[in-house]
């Protein structure tokens, strides 16, 4: 069974993701990647367990470990870039608390597939160094400071005085850091879901549950919603409407084009990005390129072709002229910068971007290849005015069914039809 998925190794702790697996990964990484390794985690109760096992594996192979504690994934990515080192993030991002994950970062970026494969092969055999060569564990106290200083250098003139923001940190890794940074720019902040207890991360809160934050939003304010590890960001506008990643891409792409920041006037989207966004961008003279679902494929397309903006509807947006990966805080600051520069409300900026109705259903399956059936492909051909995408999740045992088109009721009907069809094949 392949261990590495689209976002590192991820699974239910003590079922798939065990301390032994974490130890083996640490031991293998230490033998393959030269130099020190920075380790961070989100707020899950299993973080300590996996951190201890992972670090034991790393130092057993002779590597020094710099322990950063709880911090967002993009902050760790930045540290590895600034320090020219490797890092491992212990997080399952937006997944429920029973999940956790191990994601390797090297000098700001995810590892290439071939290096992951090599690590996976090395994990089969543990090798120890002599006792005199065992690595040290150093509590790295400057990680947060490095990240905060970097953010302030990116936005030296940003003034958020007078802007009222509700922040939902999903009881995750951003729970104290992001509100503090936004407040330092002058915004008036109210924070919810910022009391992690190890079990409440992403629990009916954060970027995957905007309906929760909507209950706390006062008229005229806006809301920023993060996920558990802080690499995603969506908004609620002044009327409580969701401003998801597609809208954020539309808002920031046009501003970047006006500022000559948008390399080759191109934005990288995925096959799931809304047709309305593509129309809006092309109408504004911006070229669109689509990739497979997953930020690693977006990033690969961007790096290969010199593009600086790409992202997903989920709020995972990459600004390569700012940092190396999706960063929920940088995404938030990019949108807030557009608000301050244009003098427009978030509602005004978002409402001009069309959003065709999308319906997404998730079907739990054991065999994620079951949808590759002639009956399914023939049925897709029947709906010429609707975009139908059926694909396996890269992180969960589910098949995702997406239907997009001009009529919401009809899209729901089509999605249910495909759900029933695939279910009948199980």
UniProtKB/TrEMBL annotation:
Residues where Mg(2+) binds: 93, 227, 229, 231
Cofactor note: Binds 1 Mg(2+) ion per subunit.
PTM sites of type Phosphoserine: 93
Any Pfam family matching the protein: PGM_PMM_III
Signal sequence extent: none
The Alpha-D-phosphohexomutase alpha/beta/alpha domain, residue ranges: 2-127, 146-240, 245-354
Active-site residues from the entry: 93
Catalytic activity: alpha-D-glucosamine 1-phosphate = D-glucosamine 6-phosphate
Description of post-translational modifications: Activated by phosphorylation.
Keywords, ordered alphabetically: Isomerase, Magnesium, Metal-binding, Phosphoprotein
Protein EC: 5.4.2.10
Highest taxon of the lineage: Bacteria
Protein name in UniProt: Phosphoglucosamine mutase
Species annotation: Thermosipho atlanticus DSM 15807
Recorded name of the encoding gene: glmM
């Amino acid at each position: 069974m392949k261990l590495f998925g689209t976002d590192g190794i991820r699974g239910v702790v003590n079922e798939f993701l065990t301390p032994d697996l974490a130890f083996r990964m640490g031991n293998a990484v230490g033998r393959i990647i030269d130099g020190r390794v920075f380790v961070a985690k989100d707020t899950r109760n299993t973080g300590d367990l996996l951190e201890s096992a992972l670090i034991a594996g790393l130092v057993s192979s002779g590597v020094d470990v710099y322990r950063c504690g709880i911090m967002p994934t993009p902050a760790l990515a930045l540290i590895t870039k600034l320090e020219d080192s490797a890092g491992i993030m212990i997080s399952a991002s937006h997944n429920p608390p029973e999940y956790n994950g191990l994601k390797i970062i090297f000098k700001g970026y995810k590892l290439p597939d071939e290096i992951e494969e090599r690590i996976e092969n090395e994990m089969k055999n543990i090798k120890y160094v002599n006792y005199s060569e065992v690595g040290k564990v150093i509590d790295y106290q400057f990680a947060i400071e490095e990240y905060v200083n970097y953010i302030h250098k990116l936005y030296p003139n940003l003034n958020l005085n007078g802007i009222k923001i509700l922040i939902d940190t999903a009881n995750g890794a951003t729970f104290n850091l992001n509100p503090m940074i936004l407040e330092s720019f002058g915004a008036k902040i109210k924070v919810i879901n910022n009391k992690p207890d190890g079990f409440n991360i992403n629990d009916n809160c954060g970027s995957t549950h905007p309906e929760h934050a909507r209950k706390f939003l006062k008229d005229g304010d806006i809301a920023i919603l993060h996920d558990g590890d802080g690499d995603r960001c969506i908004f609620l506008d002044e009327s409580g409407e969701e401003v998801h990643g597609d809208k954020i891409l539309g808002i920031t792409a046009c501003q970047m084009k006006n500022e000559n920041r948008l390399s080759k006037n191109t934005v990288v989207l995925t096959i799931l990005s809304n047709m309305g966004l593509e129309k809006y961008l092309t109408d504004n003279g911006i070229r669109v390129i689509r990739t497979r679902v997953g930020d690693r494929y977006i990033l690969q397309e961007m790096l290969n072709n010199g593009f600086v903006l790409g992202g997903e509807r989920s709020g995972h947006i990459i600004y390569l002229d700012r940092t190396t990966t999706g960063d929920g805080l940088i995404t938030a600051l990019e949108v807030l910068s557009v608000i301050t520069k244009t003098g427009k409300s978030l509602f005004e900026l978002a409402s001009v971007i069309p959003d065709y109705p999308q319906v997404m259903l998730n079907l739990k399956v054991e065999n994620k290849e079951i949808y590759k059936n002639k009956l399914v492909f023939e049925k897709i051909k029947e709906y010429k005015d609707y975009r139908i995408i059926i694909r396996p999740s890269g992180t969960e045992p589910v098949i995702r069914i997406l239907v997009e088109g001009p009529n919401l009721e009809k899209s729901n009907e089509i999605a249910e039809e495909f759900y029933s069809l695939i279910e009948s094949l199980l």
